[in-house]
Each structure stands twice: as structure tokens, then as C-alpha cells.
Write a structure and sequence with these properties.
single chain; BirA Bifunctional Protein, domain 2; alpha+beta; eight-stranded mixed β-sheet; five-stranded mixed barrel; OB fold (Dihydrolipoamide Acetyltransferase, E2P)
Length: about 475
């Protein structure tokens, strides 16, 4: 029986106990039996340790890879070991045994394992280096986001995800039963962020949002984690764009320092500074695409191919595969978007990074009368938004902000081909089709829907948006 008198030691701290007794806990990563000597490679959340025991003694424990065990032993210096030390096992206690037939092991090369299997067996996949790296970097991104904003006088807010109606006025909502009435899962914290600006001036939130949009692509999720930023006293959308340049540069610099060794396995270069990311007008982008690629099919939005083409152009011109596209048609953006001039453009932008949109943002309307007029122009009764509009009577400064999809950002940082690789839990993400058939909104909502999942649509491979 293993005594518990000795405190548990994390594997990364073993060298502090050379020579001496240690008590380790973890999963069996590998087992190697060489004649009279056997090696148990133990792994915990901090690293791996090579533990040694006589082969005959090991047989008594009937161990296998992925079993959860506790080891009592003596650590000693061993120059032949990669870590410079080994643990001579005195006793083993089995805390739990793994199943007999696992689809893969934590030491497996998961490139040959299907994505559905990796998601179904997520805890086991997280023990692999390749999958674990994704979520360690994702956690790093989230931490860098919070840290950068906290240093810039932002207040983190926590808002409701059960709401009475759509933030953007559209139909892409998940309906739920809320006692004796109907409610919805929040598609965005936008209204709450604006209320926060009226109180704190600078706010941010990190939370799940929900989009009931049918799709069958490698870049969309019905439930995703949104990094939302909103701040007041801006002069125009250019202020928001410059702030995001600085924010992402700060985040990427810290991520390079904290996770550079891991990131270097997925990228040939460090994450770039975003300070030189250009900003191009939407109409100029359409003309550029028409002139260089013969694209005449785009009117109020960009498709994935156009996003890749623009990022490649930015890479050639500015040395960074990222570009802010500003001035989308106002009619294709939510009602609260501020106009850009009088030509029908919006003070709204997308940030394209390495061929995919990772951010939507812009300047918002901050006067109640302007919001009411915008709603009426889209045949929406302002009374439906009275609880929101009332906040603008309390003194709302000119403001703007943006939202970044954490899973998409993780994919671009790690060069992953499918956004589901950056989703920790499978849940219903594998069945990313909304519960009811949607129709394109006539209320000015940006056309995000991908129709390839519809019964009468072409096969996903033929979908121009996917």
C-alpha cells in the first residue's frame, strides 16, 4: 500500500527532490519492458517522468497505457534520461483503470484519427500533444485578451444569455421555453455592451453566443465563444480599427513569448504585429477583385474565396496576410450601425486574417432618434426595442466595438483546417443545422447564412460559400 505521508509532487518539480522520495500521480503514457527492467512513463499536467521497476514486479500490477496511477519512489540523477533524472518505483497504487479497447492512445499520432472520433473521445484526445496544444494556446489567447484589456482600463462584464428577442432583429435565434413564455439564446451581447459603455465607458465580455444558422462548412459554428469589446468617445470606425490593431499585436506578442515553442510547430513564423494591417474600403475591394480576378458576383458581402484573395493581396503589399475591410453596404448590416457618409455605406468593418474573417465591428448609432429612424427604415417598430432605446436617454457617448470568434482565431493562429478542431466539447456541434428552416431577413441583417444545408440546395461541395 502506498503511503500518503509524502505530499504529491508535480512532474515538472521532480528535479528539486534529487535525490529523495517523491509521490507522483498521473496517467500511464507508455510502458516499455526490456528484459529484467521495465519503464513506466508517467504523465501529469506538467510533463512526463521516466519511472523504473523490475519487470517481474510490474507484472503484479497488470498495468496498461492510460491507467491512472500513483507512484511512490526515489528520484535520482540519470544522465541517459532526457530529463536528467529517473524515479525508482517503490510502490504503485492503481487509482482507476482505463478501458480495454480505446480508439487511440495519448501517445498516438492523431493525424490518422478522424475528427469525429477525436471529438467523441475529447478527454483522451486532450492528453495527446497535438490536440492538447490547440487548447493550451486557446487558453493563452483568452488570457492575453483579458490581460491586454484590463491594462487598458476596460471592465469585464457578464451578461445574460437568455433574452427576450434578437439583438440584430433577425430570425437566426434558438427558441427555448422559459417557464410560461418563449425566450431565446443570445446571438450577441451587443445591447448589453452598449449599456455597459453608458456606465463604464470601456467594457468587454468573453462568453458563448448562439446562431441558429444552417451550414455545412469548416468555418461556421452554431455555438461559439465570442471575445466582445465596446468602448466610448470615439471619433469614427478608424479609432476602433486602430484599437484592434494594437490589441491583437499585444495579444500576439504575449502569446509568442508564452507559447512560442508550441506555436512554432504549427507556423513557420511567429505571430505577426498587426500594426501595419491595411484598411481598404469595401467598394475598392470589389473593384480590386473585379480587376484582378474577374469577380463580378459580389455585391453586399465577401465570400470565402474573396477573403483569401484580399489577404494574399495584403501580404504582397503590406507584408502581413491581414486586412480591415471598411464600408460594407449599410443595408446589409444591423440597424444600430452608424452610416459612413451619405452614399449608403456603413461605418462597419471586417478583419480578414490569413484568408478568413475573424472580426466584425464598427461604430454604432448613439442617439435615440437616429436608432428609431434606422428601425423605421427597416419596417421595424421602435416600440419592440423600447427597453434598449431607453438606455440612450441616460447619456450615451459615441461608441463602437468589435467581436472576435475565439475558435476561428485559434484556427488561424494554429493553421487548423476545420474550426471544429478548436471546439473543446462535441455536444451538438457535429450537427450544425438549425432546428427550423430560416429565410433571409428583410431587416438588414448581414447575410451570414449558408444554404448548402437546406434540403433543396446543392451538395455542400458545390456551395459557393463553403
Amino acid at each position: 500500500m502506498v503511503t500518503t505521508a509524502t505530499p504529491r509532487v508535480f512532474i515538472e518539480n521532480i528535479r528539486e527532490f534529487v535525490p529523495g522520495e517523491v509521490r507522483l500521480k498521473g496517467w500511464i503514457y507508455r510502458l516499455r519492458v526490456l528484459g529484467k527492467t521495465a519503464f513506466v512513463i508517467l504523465r501529469d499536467c506538467t510533463g512526463e517522468a521516466q519511472c523504473v521497476i523490475a519487470s517481474d514486479a510490474l507484472k503484479n500490477y497488470r498495468l496498461k497505457v492510460e491507467d491512472v496511477i500513483e507512484i511512490q519512489g526515489t528520484v535520482r540523477a540519470e544522465p541517459r534520461s532526457k530529463t536528467g533524472h529517473e524515479v525508482d518505483i517503490c510502490a504503485i497504487r492503481v487509482l482507476n483503470r482505463a478501458g480495454q479497447q480505446l480508439p487511440f492512445q495519448s501517445a498516438s499520432d492523431v493525424e490518422s484519427v478522424g475528427l469525429d472520433t477525436l471529438i467523441e473521445y475529447r478527454p483522451l484526445a486532450l492528453r495527446t500533444e497535438a490536440v492538447g496544444d490547440i487548447f493550451r494556446v486557446q487558453a493563452g489567447l483568452l488570457g492575453c485578451f483579458r490581460d491586454a484589456l484590463n491594462r487598458r482600463r476596460f471592465t469585464e462584464i457578464i451578461t445574460s444569455k437568455i433574452v427576450g428577442g434578437g439583438t440584430e432583429g433577425g430570425t437566426n435565434l434558438f427558441e427555448i421555453k422559459y417557464f410560461n413564455r418563449v425566450a431565446y439564446l443570445a446571438q450577441s451581447p451587443q445591447f448589453y455592451k452598449e449599456h455597459g459603455v453608458a456606465g463604464f465607458e470601456r467594457v468587454y465580455e468573453t462568453a458563448h453566443v448562439y446562431r441558429a444558422e444552417p451550414h455545412a462548412s469548416s468555418r461556421h459554428l452554431t455555438e461559439y465563444y465570442s471575445l466582445d469589446v465596446e468602448f466610448g468617445f470615439i471619433d469614427g470606425p478608424e479609432d476602433v480599427i486602430q484599437f484592434e490593431r494594437e490589441l491583437l499585436t499585444d495579444m500576439f506578442d504575449n502569446l509568442n513569448r508564452q507559447h512560442g515553442k508550441v506555436i512554432s510547430k504549427y507556423r513557420t513564423e511567429c505571430l505577426p504585429s498587426m500594426l501595419k494591417a491595411p484598411c481598404w474600403e469595401f467598394d475598392a475591394c470589389l473593384e480590386m477583385l473585379r480587376r484582378e480576378f474577374g469577380r463580378t458576383d459580389l455585391t453586399d458581402d465577401l465570400d470565402p474565396e474573396a477573403e483569401r484573395q484580399l489577404c494574399e493581396r495584403a501580404r504582397r503589399e503590406a507584408g502581413i496576410p491581414a486586412v480591415f475591410v471598411l464600408g460594407f453596404p449599410l443595408s446589409a448590416r444591423p440597424f444600430y450601425t452608424a452610416p459612413r457618409g451619405s452614399g449608403g455605406a456603413a461605418s462597419s468593418f471586417d478583419l480578414l486574417f490569413q484568408g478568413i474573417e475573424i472580426t466584425t465591428g464598427g461604430q454604432r448609432l448613439h442617439r435615440r432618434q437616429d436608432l428609431e429612424a434606422a428601425l423605421r427604415s427597416r419596417s421595424i417598430d421602435p416600440a419592440n426595442f423600447e427597453s434598449h432605446l431607453a438606455m440612450f436617454d441616460l447619456g450615451m457617448p459615441p461608441h463602437g466595438g468589435f467581436a472576435i470568434g475565439l475558435e476561428r482565431l485559434t484556427c488561424q493562429v494554429m493553421n487548423l483546417p476545420n474550426v471544429r478542431q478548436a471546439v473543446l466539447s462535441g455536444s451538438l456541434q457535429a450537427h450544425a443545422v438549425a432546428p427550423r428552416r430560416l429565410t433571409p431577413s428583410s431587416q438588414g441583417i448581414r447575410k451570414r447564412l449558408c444554404w448548402c444545408a437546406q434540403p433543396d440546395a446543392p451538395a455542400p461541395a458545390a456551395c459557393p460559400r463553403c
